[in-house]
Structure formats: structure tokens, C-alpha cells
Design brief:
Layout: E1 6-14, H1 18-29, E2 34-37, E3 53-54, H2 64-91, E4 102-106, H3 109-124, E5 130-133, H4 134-140, E6 150-154, E7 158-159, H5 162-176, E8 179-181, E9 188-192, E10 195-200, E11 206-214, E12 235-245, E13 256-259, E14 262-266, E15 271-275, H6 289-302, E16 310-321, E17 328-331, E18 337-341, H7 351-363
Helix pairs in contact: 1-5, 1-7, 2-5, 2-7
């Protein structure tokens, strides 16, 4: 968009990660004119670094707020197979939905007791799991170390490749007629009276929009123009992550492994994602030796073969956290402003449901 111009659109989506793109695509399918504005490049935030676990069962936690998140996670997980198939049909991109399940692992007596409590929680919630002795877990994943004492299998927890999802959504948006503006910089929400009027860009351009969908991830809480109207808090939660490659190809592990201190997600092509630290460090984008060491140490203790893999990438991302870690989805603040952020660790999982809820806000319908 040339400097200083005004552009009229029905819906402006601020943020070009998975959440912003899926909301834009679905809104366009409803017949709206849609523009996505990304401060840098598509998928450059958490979407491009995320591990891509679709894990409502292994993500379940104690507490009422966690119960609300679980209900959303379960609902969205059910949507993913058809969502992935539709994305492939519309874009030609396979998002690599792997349905091999997840193993939650314990290495010692303390972790085993904690995992027993986690098992009881899931039983009380009616979630499908299977308790395994260490030897049974090694029958499923032979690369596991002998020190594994107890495991909990969640067969319905799966994974996708978030980078493939970004590519698929970008292609689907293009085919549907969604306009995308990368490199837009830090846009500001413009408010006229009691309603949003659009977005102001750093180059002086103005995007007039009837509705602004705020899907800027961890940056949502810092968007200009909203600081004086008492809207919900969104903060960045730093995560360091490693991407490894097995020169001999796939097969070291086939399931997602989760354990105290991290996880390993196989991609199916001999690549593995190790994550992730949880750090309240603001927007500190630097990886640290300590963070990388801890990720490798925890993984090596459970899968010694990790030591033979090549390091392809060290990444840092910022999860969008809220005070209770419940996502912010729907209208809030001035008329015409819809939030689609605060997904914390579940942004990829919650993508299809978030788009459904946002589109329900656009039409005035309540998603069933």
C-alpha cells in the first residue's frame, strides 16, 4: 500500500500468524472484504516457532480456568481432521497431521507420583488415557531410556507442522481473495466516538474498516490506540525451542513425548522439535546457553539417541498469555473491535475454533 493512502475494507485483521490468517480466510468465505496486516512477515511470530501439538488431553490442568480452556481445546481438536483436509483441498498443502498420539513420561518416583495425579485428573474429566509401565512404554518407543518408570498414553493427542499451516492458510487466503499486507509495521487502532474506524499505519496510510480483528499474538497488549480504554491484559511469555535433524532419517521416535521440563515432537521426516522454556522475560528475543542446555539435557535423559542429531535451528517465540491463560476471543471494548488472542500454548490447536467464534461475532450468531 503506497504511503499516505486510505483504503476501505469491511474487516481488517491485525496479525498474520495462524490465528489472523484463519480468521481472515473464514471471514472472506462469508463474503466480507478482508485485509490482513502483518507488521513483519506472515508467520514470523509464535506460529513460525511453535511445535504444533494438538494436545487437549496432555495439556489438561487443575482449576476452573483450566477447565474452560480444556473444553475449548477438546472442541477444536475435533475440528482439526476436517479442517486439515479442507486446507489441503483449498491450498494443495499438506499440514502434516500426525495422529500417532502422545506419551507423558516420568523418570523417577517424584515424577511418577505427579503423573499418577495427572492420570487421576484425566480420569475424573472423562479423558481417554492409558497407564503404562516403563517397559510397556519402551515397547511403543524403543529409543526411550531404561530410566523411564511410568508413562501415560494419550492416543487422541496429535500434532501438525505450524509452518505448513501458515503456508496453507496464506495460499487459501490468496485464492479466496483476501488481501495481505506484509511489512506494515506497528499499526495503531483508530477509534472514532465509541467505535473503531480502522487502523493507522506508520507510513501515514489509513485503513478504514468496519471491524478490526486483533490477532497480534503476544503483541496484542501493546497495540497503540487501546491503552486508555481498560481492555484485557496480554503479555509475552518467552519460549526457547530447538529443531533437530536425524541424518539417517525418521524413526527415532514416532509419538510426541512430554515430560517434566519439555517435549519432543517428531515431524515424520527425520526432524524433531524440542521445547520449550517458559520465561517471563518480556520481549527478550535472545536464546541463552542455559535454556538450550536444559532443553537438550532433559531430552537426552529420556531419549539418549537425541545426542546424535544435528541442530538445525535455535528459535525464540513469545506466547500470548493472559492472567488466567484463558484466550480472549470475541468483542471487547469499542464497537467493531474483536479479539482473537491470548491463546498461550494452544494457538495452533485452537485455530479452527477461534475462527468459528470470530465469525460468529461478525454475524451476530453464537457458535454452537
Amino acid at each position: 500500500m503506497p504511503s499516505g493512502l486510505r483504503h476501505d475494507v469491511e474487516i481488517a485483521v491485525l496479525g498474520g500468524g495462524v490465528i489472523g490468517l484463519v480468521c481472515a480466510w473464514r471471514a472472506r468465505q462469508l463474503g466480507h472484504s478482508v485485509l490482513v496486516l502483518e507488521r513483519d512477515r506472515l508467520g514470523c511470530g509464535a506460529s513460525g516457532v511453535a511445535a504444533g501439538m494438538l494436545a487437549p488431553v496432555s495439556e489438561a490442568e487443575f482449576g476452573p480456568a483450566a477447565q474452560a480452556v480444556l473444553e475449548m481445546n477438546l472442541r477444536s481438536a475435533e475440528m482439526w481432521p476436517s479442517f486439515a483436509a479442507e486446507l489441503r483441498q483449498e491450498s494443495g498443502v499438506d499440514v502434516q497431521l500426525h495422529r500417532s498420539g502422545t506419551l507423558m513420561l516420568a523418570r523417577d518416583s517424584d515424577e511418577a507420583r505427579a503423573l499418577e495425579r495427572q492420570s487421576e485428573l484425566r480420569d475424573s474429566l472423562g479423558l481417554q488415557t492409558r497407564r503404562l509401565r516403563g517397559s510397556q512404554a519402551r515397547e511403543l518407543e524403543s529409543a526411550l531410556a531404561p530410566r523411564v518408570r511410568l508413562a501415560l498414553e494419550a492416543p487422541e493427542d496429535h500434532s501438525v507442522d505450524p509452518r505448513a499451516v501458515v503456508g496453507a492458510l496464506a495460499s487459501a487466503c490468496e485464492h479466496a481473495g483476501v488481501r495481505v499486507l506484509e511489512g506494515a509495521g506497528e499499526a495503531a487502532v483508530a477509534i472514532g466516538g465509541e467505535a473503531v474506524s480502522g487502523l493507522r499505519l506508520p507510513d501515514g496510510s489509513f485503513v478504514h474498516a468496519d471491524t478490526v480483528v486483533l490477532a497480534a499474538g503476544a503483541w496484542s497488549g501493546a497495540v497503540s490506540g487501546l491503552s486508555d480504554i481498560g481492555l484485557p491484559e496480554v503479555r509475552p511469555v518467552k519460549g526457547q525451542i530447538l529443531r533437530l535433524r536425524d541424518p539417517s532419517g525418521p524413526g527415532l521416535i514416532t509419538r510426541v513425548l512430554r515430560y517434566e521440563g519439555g517435549y519432543i515432537v517428531p515431524r515424520g521426516d527425520g526432524r524433531y522439535v524440542l521445547g520449550a522454556t517458559v520465561e517471563e522475560q518480556g520481549f527478550d528475543e535472545h536464546p541463552t546457553a542455559g535454556g538450550v542446555y536444559e532443553l537438550l539435557k532433559e531430552a537426552w535423559e529420556l531419549v539418549p539417541g537425541i545426542a546424535e542429531l544435528a541442530i538445525e535451528e535455535i528459535g525464540v517465540s513469545f506466547r500470548p498469555g493472559t492472567p488466567d491463560n484463558v484466550p480472549l476471543i470475541g468483542p471487547a471494548g469499542p464497537a467493531g473491535l474483536i479479539w482473537a488472542t491470548g491463546h498461550y500454548r494452544n494457538g495452533i490447536l485452537l485455530a479452527p475454533l477461534t475462527a468459528e467464534l470470530v465469525c460468529g461475532s461478525l454475524t451476530g450468531a453464537v457458535a454452537a
